Target: Fibronectin type III domain-containing protein 4
Amino acid sequence: DRPPAPVNVSVTHLRADSATVSWEVPEGDIIIGFSISQQRQEGHMQRFIREVNTTSRACVLWDLEEETDYIIQVQSIGLYGESQASKKVHFRTLKKTDRFPSNSSNQDDPTVQGLDKSRHLQTGEMIIIVVVLVMWAAVIALFCRQYDIIKDNDSSNNKEKAKPSSERSTPEHHSGGLLRSKVSTRLL
Model:
């Protein structure tokens, strides 16, 4: 039940330190992610990228070295495992002096898509944002409630402490009466 290997793997938007890998997946299979292995031509495994919960069919490779030969392979990730690796694709990064004209940026380039200021949030992103906001509101409400309870307890304790001290006897008379009351009984 493993998915079929990706086809039509290509490398576009070559730069001195980055490149975009894109691929296609045969129709009908449920694909939940991808894996990309990247290595230098001389054979050193350099990077393994694995993304799940995505329908993306492209990935930007960063931190590449200029004028270096690379080999990449892509695998599809399905519900029951990974596909066989795609055919190997060879590419060479450019020199830093090789620049594209500034008007050649393509909106289909994933490196440019992240910079789109009018990008709309996806439903999953909105749900996560709303859940986080609701949780913060609940935490703040709980904090305020606990603060009010603590504040009420403190003021009640202060009243209780103040009450017995006013009812205590004066230092001169330990019986609890006031000096004035004894004086008034003598006058009568």
